[in-house]
Amino acid sequence: MAHKFVDNYRERGARKKLAEKLKDRGIQDKNVLGAIAKVPRHYFFDETFWLQAYKDIAFPIGDGQTISQPYTVAYQTELLHIKKGDKVLEVGTGSGYQTCILIELGADVYTIERQENLYNRTKLVLPHMGYQAHFFCGDGSKGILDHAPYDKILVTAGAPFVPEILLKQLKIGGILVIPVGDEQTQKMLTVIRVSETEYEKFELDTFRFVPLVGDQAW
Ligand code: SAM
């Protein structure tokens, strides 16, 4: 696998252009754009498809799953307002690209994936790239109670509703970002835990995610 990890001016230039494109599409957070310009997205692709890596498109990563579109990754990340040292739960590890973006921003990431083969692959690849996270395999629609509470929770698959159990795992002042809707389209929601019992909810743009499958999901 080591041969794959080549990062030269061609890839770095393409990444910079991708970050500029996302800025033109409305992503404003300089740190998020900086992380996009830094994480080598082509490492997640088979060499045959390297040319696709810096297009603003989602791409199949096997097992019927996708690496999210860079715009979507940047959009969700911007909503989280990550601060250095934030403890972040990510539901839906997938390729681990989003995980790397969160780590670049200084987050301590707890990431959970329900598909064992994706979990196994990502758990190996990320440390090899120099990104350290806490990897879990299982149903993230229930969160990871053992490590709660979290400053931020990010769900990267489309949910039919906001799982109550995830809200309970947020710190006071914490933020949950989750796409909610039907199987076709979902609205991006931001939920802020303002007190022990109160939450503020904001509904944003429409996206299309793969389904969140599990106990508190589809
Ligand atoms: N953000 C990822 C990336 O950058 O590659 C892509 C995530 S992909 C759009 C969504 C992932 O959520 C899939 O890998 C899917 O298997 C996973 N997933 C779906 N339901 C889940 C659940 N209940 N718990 C954990 N992972 C789940």
Distance between the termini: 35 Å
Q: What gross morphology would you assign? A: globular
Structural class: alpha/beta
Q: Characterize the largest beta sheet: strand count, sense, and whether it forms a barrel.
A: 7 strands, mixed
CATH topology grouping: Rossmann fold
What's the helical proportion of residues?
25-40%
Work out the strand percent: 25-35%
Mean pLDDT: 95
Number of helices: 6
Helix and strand run: HHEEHEHEHEEHEEE
Distinct ligands, ions and cofactors found in the model: S-adenosylmethionine
CATH class: Alpha Beta
| CATH architecture heading | 3-Layer(aba) Sandwich
Describe the structure in your own words.
- The structure is a single chain.
- The chain is of the alpha/beta class.
- The protein has a single domain, classed as Vaccinia Virus protein VP39 (Rossmann fold, 3-Layer(aba) Sandwich).
- It contains six helices and nine strands, in the order H-H-E-E-H-E-H-E-H-E-E-H-E-E-E.
- It has helices at residues 9-24, 30-38, 70-80, 97-104, 116-129, 164-167, and strands at 59-62, 65-67, 87-91, 108-113, 134-137, 150-155, 170-181, 186-193, 199-207.
- The strands form two sheets. Strands 5-4-3-6-7-8-9 form a seven-stranded mixed β-sheet. The protein has a two-stranded antiparallel sheet with strand order 1-2.
- Strand 8 (186-193) and strand 9 (199-207) form a beta hairpin.
- Helix 1 packs antiparallel against helix 2 and helix 2 (30-38) crosses helix 4 (97-104).
- The longest helix has 16 residues, at 9-24.
- The protein is globular, with a radius of gyration of 16 Å.
- Residues 65-68, 73, 91-92, 94-95, 97-98, 112-115, 118, 139-141, 156-157, 209-210, 212-214, 217 line the site of S-adenosylmethionine (SAM).
